[in-house]
Specification:
The chain is an alpha/beta fold. The protein has 15 helices and 12 strands. α4 links the parallel β3 and β4.
Protein backbone atom coordinates (compact mmCIF):
# COMPACT_ATOMS: atom_id res chain seq x y z
CA UNK A 1 0.00 0.00 0.00
CA UNK A 2 1.42 3.38 -1.04
CA UNK A 3 2.40 5.74 1.81
CA UNK A 4 1.04 9.29 1.68
CA UNK A 5 2.24 12.05 4.01
CA UNK A 6 -0.45 14.64 4.75
CA UNK A 7 0.78 17.96 6.18
CA UNK A 8 -2.09 20.07 7.47
CA UNK A 9 -2.61 23.34 9.39
CA UNK A 10 -4.89 21.48 11.82
CA UNK A 11 -5.87 17.81 12.10
CA UNK A 12 -6.15 16.56 8.53
CA UNK A 13 -7.96 13.31 9.33
CA UNK A 14 -11.56 14.55 8.84
CA UNK A 15 -10.68 15.87 5.36
CA UNK A 16 -8.79 12.92 3.92
CA UNK A 17 -10.81 9.85 4.84
CA UNK A 18 -11.21 9.07 1.15
CA UNK A 19 -7.43 8.78 0.77
CA UNK A 20 -7.10 6.54 3.83
CA UNK A 21 -9.50 4.13 2.14
CA UNK A 22 -6.77 3.04 -0.29
CA UNK A 23 -3.48 4.42 1.01
CA UNK A 24 -1.43 4.35 4.19
CA UNK A 25 -1.50 7.93 5.53
CA UNK A 26 0.81 9.65 7.98
CA UNK A 27 -0.60 12.91 9.35
CA UNK A 28 1.75 15.79 10.12
CA UNK A 29 0.80 19.14 11.66
CA UNK A 30 2.40 22.17 10.01
CA UNK A 31 2.43 24.05 13.35
CA UNK A 32 4.02 21.48 15.69
CA UNK A 33 5.46 23.96 18.22
CA UNK A 34 2.02 25.43 18.82
CA UNK A 35 0.57 21.95 19.31
CA UNK A 36 3.47 20.97 21.56
CA UNK A 37 2.59 23.88 23.87
CA UNK A 38 -1.09 22.85 23.75
CA UNK A 39 -0.18 19.26 24.67
CA UNK A 40 1.91 20.33 27.63
CA UNK A 41 -0.51 22.97 28.97
CA UNK A 42 -3.84 21.21 28.35
CA UNK A 43 -3.09 17.50 28.16
CA UNK A 44 0.00 17.26 30.38
CA UNK A 45 1.44 14.88 27.82
CA UNK A 46 2.94 14.98 24.35
CA UNK A 47 1.00 13.15 21.64
CA UNK A 48 2.59 10.95 19.00
CA UNK A 49 1.25 13.27 16.28
CA UNK A 50 3.12 16.19 17.83
CA UNK A 51 6.37 14.22 18.10
CA UNK A 52 6.05 13.04 14.48
CA UNK A 53 5.34 16.59 13.33
CA UNK A 54 8.35 18.08 15.14
CA UNK A 55 10.65 15.41 13.71
CA UNK A 56 9.23 15.98 10.23
CA UNK A 57 9.88 19.72 10.51
CA UNK A 58 13.49 19.34 11.67
CA UNK A 59 14.20 16.78 8.95
CA UNK A 60 12.61 18.84 6.14
CA UNK A 61 15.75 19.07 3.95
CA UNK A 62 16.19 15.30 4.00
CA UNK A 63 12.76 14.14 2.79
CA UNK A 64 12.85 12.80 -0.76
CA UNK A 65 10.87 10.60 -3.16
CA UNK A 66 7.72 10.98 -1.02
CA UNK A 67 4.16 11.71 -2.07
CA UNK A 68 3.02 14.59 0.13
CA UNK A 69 -0.28 16.45 0.36
CA UNK A 70 0.06 19.95 1.79
CA UNK A 71 -3.20 21.27 3.27
CA UNK A 72 -2.14 24.83 3.93
CA UNK A 73 -4.19 28.02 3.77
CA UNK A 74 -2.95 30.92 1.63
CA UNK A 75 -0.71 32.87 2.38
CA UNK A 76 0.76 31.02 5.31
CA UNK A 77 4.39 32.07 5.90
CA UNK A 78 5.27 28.44 6.72
CA UNK A 79 5.49 27.77 3.00
CA UNK A 80 8.97 29.28 3.44
CA UNK A 81 9.91 25.95 5.06
CA UNK A 82 7.49 23.39 3.65
CA UNK A 83 7.89 24.69 0.10
CA UNK A 84 11.33 23.08 -0.10
CA UNK A 85 9.57 19.71 -0.16
CA UNK A 86 8.59 20.44 -3.79
CA UNK A 87 12.15 19.98 -5.02
CA UNK A 88 12.73 16.32 -4.12
CA UNK A 89 9.19 15.04 -3.60
CA UNK A 90 5.85 14.94 -5.36
CA UNK A 91 3.82 17.52 -3.46
CA UNK A 92 0.12 18.23 -3.97
CA UNK A 93 -1.41 21.42 -2.57
CA UNK A 94 -4.92 20.95 -1.14
CA UNK A 95 -7.13 24.04 -0.76
CA UNK A 96 -10.74 24.88 0.00
CA UNK A 97 -10.21 28.67 0.18
CA UNK A 98 -12.33 30.59 -2.33
CA UNK A 99 -11.00 34.17 -2.05
CA UNK A 100 -7.34 34.08 -3.06
CA UNK A 101 -7.67 37.66 -4.30
CA UNK A 102 -9.46 38.81 -1.16
CA UNK A 103 -9.16 38.31 2.57
CA UNK A 104 -7.37 35.11 3.53
CA UNK A 105 -7.00 33.13 6.78
CA UNK A 106 -3.35 34.23 7.05
CA UNK A 107 -2.99 37.99 6.76
CA UNK A 108 -0.11 40.17 7.90
CA UNK A 109 0.90 43.83 7.59
CA UNK A 110 1.05 45.01 3.97
CA UNK A 111 4.75 44.55 3.33
CA UNK A 112 4.66 40.93 4.56
CA UNK A 113 1.42 40.24 2.67
CA UNK A 114 3.18 41.26 -0.53
CA UNK A 115 6.22 39.11 0.26
CA UNK A 116 4.22 36.00 1.08
CA UNK A 117 1.96 36.40 -1.95
CA UNK A 118 5.07 36.45 -4.12
CA UNK A 119 6.34 33.39 -2.28
CA UNK A 120 3.11 31.51 -2.96
CA UNK A 121 3.05 32.63 -6.59
CA UNK A 122 6.60 31.27 -6.88
CA UNK A 123 5.66 27.85 -5.50
CA UNK A 124 2.25 27.27 -7.11
CA UNK A 125 3.69 25.98 -10.44
CA UNK A 126 6.11 23.76 -8.50
CA UNK A 127 3.38 21.62 -6.98
CA UNK A 128 2.81 18.34 -8.80
CA UNK A 129 -0.91 19.06 -8.64
CA UNK A 130 -3.25 21.47 -6.92
CA UNK A 131 -6.43 19.94 -5.51
CA UNK A 132 -9.39 22.31 -5.07
CA UNK A 133 -12.37 21.24 -2.97
CA UNK A 134 -14.77 23.27 -5.14
CA UNK A 135 -14.93 24.76 -8.62
CA UNK A 136 -15.03 28.21 -6.99
CA UNK A 137 -11.73 27.46 -5.25
CA UNK A 138 -10.16 26.35 -8.53
CA UNK A 139 -11.28 29.53 -10.29
CA UNK A 140 -10.02 31.70 -7.44
CA UNK A 141 -6.55 30.10 -7.60
CA UNK A 142 -6.48 30.56 -11.37
CA UNK A 143 -7.45 34.22 -11.02
CA UNK A 144 -4.71 34.78 -8.43
CA UNK A 145 -2.02 32.98 -10.40
CA UNK A 146 -2.81 34.36 -13.89
CA UNK A 147 -1.03 34.03 -16.31
CA UNK A 148 0.72 31.00 -14.75
CA UNK A 149 -0.24 27.58 -16.08
CA UNK A 150 -1.31 25.28 -13.22
CA UNK A 151 -2.53 21.69 -12.93
CA UNK A 152 -5.70 21.96 -10.81
CA UNK A 153 -8.14 19.13 -10.11
CA UNK A 154 -11.44 19.43 -8.23
CA UNK A 155 -12.07 16.72 -5.63
CA UNK A 156 -14.76 17.51 -3.02
CA UNK A 157 -14.80 16.33 0.57
CA UNK A 158 -16.25 12.90 1.22
CA UNK A 159 -19.46 11.98 3.06
CA UNK A 160 -18.91 8.79 5.01
CA UNK A 161 -22.31 8.07 6.56
CA UNK A 162 -24.77 5.52 5.28
CA UNK A 163 -27.66 7.10 3.34
CA UNK A 164 -31.24 6.85 4.52
CA UNK A 165 -33.18 3.85 3.24
CA UNK A 166 -36.21 4.30 1.02
CA UNK A 167 -38.47 2.86 3.75
CA UNK A 168 -37.11 5.37 6.29
CA UNK A 169 -37.52 8.22 3.83
CA UNK A 170 -41.15 7.27 3.12
CA UNK A 171 -41.86 7.10 6.85
CA UNK A 172 -40.54 10.57 7.60
CA UNK A 173 -42.49 12.17 4.76
CA UNK A 174 -45.72 10.60 6.02
CA UNK A 175 -45.60 12.87 9.07
CA UNK A 176 -47.92 15.88 9.13
CA UNK A 177 -45.66 17.76 11.58
CA UNK A 178 -42.55 19.48 10.27
CA UNK A 179 -39.24 18.54 11.85
CA UNK A 180 -36.58 21.16 11.12
CA UNK A 181 -32.91 20.93 12.08
CA UNK A 182 -29.79 23.06 12.40
CA UNK A 183 -26.35 21.61 13.18
CA UNK A 184 -23.29 23.82 13.51
CA UNK A 185 -21.60 26.66 15.36
CA UNK A 186 -23.92 28.76 17.49
CA UNK A 187 -22.69 32.14 16.25
CA UNK A 188 -24.36 35.15 14.60
CA UNK A 189 -22.88 34.44 11.15
CA UNK A 190 -24.57 31.05 11.19
CA UNK A 191 -27.95 32.78 11.34
CA UNK A 192 -29.00 31.50 14.76
CA UNK A 193 -31.27 34.50 15.37
CA UNK A 194 -33.13 33.73 12.14
CA UNK A 195 -33.84 30.23 13.40
CA UNK A 196 -35.17 31.59 16.68
CA UNK A 197 -37.31 34.05 14.71
CA UNK A 198 -38.71 31.27 12.50
CA UNK A 199 -39.55 29.10 15.52
CA UNK A 200 -41.38 32.04 17.17
CA UNK A 201 -43.54 32.56 14.10
CA UNK A 202 -44.34 28.84 13.91
CA UNK A 203 -46.26 28.91 17.19
CA UNK A 204 -49.61 29.53 15.56
CA UNK A 205 -51.66 28.17 12.66
CA UNK A 206 -50.64 25.08 10.70
CA UNK A 207 -47.12 25.12 12.13
CA UNK A 208 -47.95 25.14 15.86
CA UNK A 209 -47.27 21.39 16.26
CA UNK A 210 -44.00 21.50 14.31
CA UNK A 211 -40.53 22.09 15.73
CA UNK A 212 -36.93 23.00 14.97
CA UNK A 213 -34.05 21.23 16.71
CA UNK A 214 -30.67 22.91 17.18
CA UNK A 215 -27.44 20.99 17.84
CA UNK A 216 -24.07 22.62 18.34
CA UNK A 217 -22.04 24.87 20.58
CA UNK A 218 -20.94 28.50 20.54
CA UNK A 219 -21.31 31.75 22.41
CA UNK A 220 -25.01 32.11 21.48
CA UNK A 221 -25.82 28.93 23.40
CA UNK A 222 -27.43 30.88 26.28
CA UNK A 223 -29.68 32.73 23.81
CA UNK A 224 -30.92 29.41 22.46
CA UNK A 225 -31.45 27.89 25.90
CA UNK A 226 -33.52 30.92 26.98
CA UNK A 227 -35.48 30.96 23.71
CA UNK A 228 -36.24 27.23 23.97
CA UNK A 229 -37.84 27.80 27.38
CA UNK A 230 -40.40 30.25 25.97
CA UNK A 231 -40.87 28.74 22.50
CA UNK A 232 -42.44 25.30 22.55
CA UNK A 233 -41.32 24.46 19.01
CA UNK A 234 -37.63 25.19 19.58
CA UNK A 235 -35.58 22.32 21.01
CA UNK A 236 -31.91 22.62 21.96
CA UNK A 237 -30.15 19.26 21.71
CA UNK A 238 -26.77 20.40 23.02
CA UNK A 239 -23.42 19.62 21.43
CA UNK A 240 -23.52 16.17 19.86
CA UNK A 241 -20.30 14.36 19.03
CA UNK A 242 -21.78 10.97 18.13
CA UNK A 243 -22.03 10.51 14.37
CA UNK A 244 -24.85 8.02 14.85
CA UNK A 245 -26.91 10.49 16.92
CA UNK A 246 -26.40 13.25 14.35
CA UNK A 247 -27.43 10.87 11.57
CA UNK A 248 -30.57 9.93 13.52
CA UNK A 249 -31.48 13.62 13.93
CA UNK A 250 -31.08 14.18 10.19
CA UNK A 251 -32.98 11.02 9.41
CA UNK A 252 -35.96 12.27 11.44
CA UNK A 253 -35.93 15.79 9.95
CA UNK A 254 -37.62 16.86 6.73
CA UNK A 255 -35.83 20.22 6.53
CA UNK A 256 -32.26 21.25 7.30
CA UNK A 257 -31.77 25.00 7.82
CA UNK A 258 -28.56 26.90 7.09
CA UNK A 259 -29.33 30.66 7.28
CA UNK A 260 -25.69 31.80 7.03
CA UNK A 261 -24.76 35.50 7.03
CA UNK A 262 -21.80 36.91 5.13
CA UNK A 263 -19.28 38.74 7.25
CA UNK A 264 -15.94 40.29 6.33
CA UNK A 265 -13.71 37.53 5.02
CA UNK A 266 -16.24 34.70 5.39
CA UNK A 267 -19.27 33.14 3.82
CA UNK A 268 -20.57 29.58 3.94
CA UNK A 269 -18.17 27.33 2.05
CA UNK A 270 -18.49 23.71 0.96
CA UNK A 271 -20.15 22.22 4.01
CA UNK A 272 -20.06 18.48 4.59
CA UNK A 273 -23.07 18.94 6.85
CA UNK A 274 -25.13 19.98 3.81
CA UNK A 275 -24.35 16.80 1.91
CA UNK A 276 -24.78 14.70 5.06
CA UNK A 277 -28.27 16.16 5.51
CA UNK A 278 -29.06 15.48 1.86
CA UNK A 279 -27.91 11.88 2.32
CA UNK A 280 -30.61 11.51 4.97
CA UNK A 281 -33.34 12.85 2.68
CA UNK A 282 -33.51 16.36 4.15
CA UNK A 283 -34.60 19.31 2.06
CA UNK A 284 -31.80 21.78 2.74
CA UNK A 285 -32.81 25.45 2.86
CA UNK A 286 -29.60 27.46 2.71
CA UNK A 287 -28.40 30.99 2.14
CA UNK A 288 -27.21 31.56 -1.41
CA UNK A 289 -23.53 31.45 -0.49
CA UNK A 290 -20.63 30.09 -2.49
CA UNK A 291 -20.61 26.64 -0.85
CA UNK A 292 -24.32 25.77 -0.83
CA UNK A 293 -24.90 27.01 -4.39
CA UNK A 294 -22.13 24.74 -5.67
CA UNK A 295 -23.86 21.73 -4.12
CA UNK A 296 -27.56 22.58 -4.51
CA UNK A 297 -29.62 23.03 -7.66
CA UNK A 298 -32.30 25.45 -6.48
CA UNK A 299 -35.76 23.85 -6.10
CA UNK A 300 -34.45 20.61 -7.61
CA UNK A 301 -32.47 19.01 -4.79
CA UNK A 302 -32.61 21.83 -2.23
CA UNK A 303 -33.65 25.44 -1.77
CA UNK A 304 -31.42 28.52 -1.92
CA UNK A 305 -32.54 31.94 -0.77
CA UNK A 306 -31.16 35.38 -0.07
CA UNK A 307 -30.13 36.18 3.50
CA UNK A 308 -32.69 38.97 3.85
CA UNK A 309 -35.53 36.65 2.76
CA UNK A 310 -34.50 33.53 4.67
CA UNK A 311 -37.11 33.77 7.43
CA UNK A 312 -40.07 34.54 5.13
CA UNK A 313 -38.90 32.05 2.49
CA UNK A 314 -38.58 29.25 5.04
CA UNK A 315 -42.01 29.97 6.54
CA UNK A 316 -43.56 29.98 3.03
CA UNK A 317 -42.04 26.58 2.33
CA UNK A 318 -43.18 25.24 5.70
CA UNK A 319 -46.73 26.39 5.03
CA UNK A 320 -46.66 24.98 1.48
CA UNK A 321 -45.51 21.65 2.94
CA UNK A 322 -49.05 20.90 4.14
CA UNK A 323 -50.59 21.42 0.70
CA UNK A 324 -47.84 20.00 -1.50
CA UNK A 325 -45.92 17.45 0.55
CA UNK A 326 -45.06 15.40 -2.54
CA UNK A 327 -43.18 18.34 -4.05
CA UNK A 328 -40.83 18.43 -1.06
CA UNK A 329 -40.55 14.66 -0.95
CA UNK A 330 -39.37 14.70 -4.57
CA UNK A 331 -36.75 17.33 -3.69
CA UNK A 332 -35.57 15.11 -0.82
CA UNK A 333 -35.26 12.09 -3.13
CA UNK A 334 -33.22 14.08 -5.62
CA UNK A 335 -31.10 15.37 -2.70
CA UNK A 336 -30.47 11.77 -1.67
CA UNK A 337 -29.40 10.91 -5.22
CA UNK A 338 -27.14 14.00 -5.41
CA UNK A 339 -25.43 13.12 -2.12
CA UNK A 340 -24.10 9.89 -3.62
CA UNK A 341 -21.81 11.97 -5.80
CA UNK A 342 -19.87 12.62 -2.58
CA UNK A 343 -20.01 9.04 -1.30
CA UNK A 344 -16.80 7.35 -0.15
CA UNK A 345 -16.61 4.98 -3.14
CA UNK A 346 -16.77 7.82 -5.68
CA UNK A 347 -14.42 10.28 -3.96
CA UNK A 348 -11.85 7.64 -3.01
CA UNK A 349 -11.72 6.52 -6.65
CA UNK A 350 -10.95 10.10 -7.74
CA UNK A 351 -8.00 10.15 -5.33
CA UNK A 352 -6.78 6.73 -6.49
CA UNK A 353 -6.78 7.84 -10.13
CA UNK A 354 -5.03 11.12 -9.31
CA UNK A 355 -2.29 9.61 -7.14
CA UNK A 356 -1.69 6.70 -9.50
CA UNK A 357 -1.29 9.16 -12.39
CA UNK A 358 1.34 11.26 -10.65
CA UNK A 359 3.24 8.14 -9.61
CA UNK A 360 3.67 7.00 -13.22
Amino acid sequence: MKDIIIVHDFDGRPYFKAIEKNFQCKFINSRPIRFLIRDIVKKRTITKDTIDSILFLFLLPFHKNQTIILGMAPFNFRLLFYGMLCYRNKVLLHSSWHQWLGRTPFSYINIFNKIFKKLWRHYLPRFERIIAVTKATKQSILDFSYPLSLNIDVIPHVVDIEPITRAELDKKWNSKCIQGLFVGRLTPEKGIKDIINISEKMQSGLLKDSNIKIAGKGYLEDDIVHASKRISGLLYMGYITSRDKLRDLMKQSQFFLLPSKKIKGWEELFGLVIVEAMSQGCVVIASNHIGPKEIIDNHKDGILCEESDFVDNTLRNFNNFHTDIYYYKEISMRALDKSQKYHMANISQLWVELINNIER
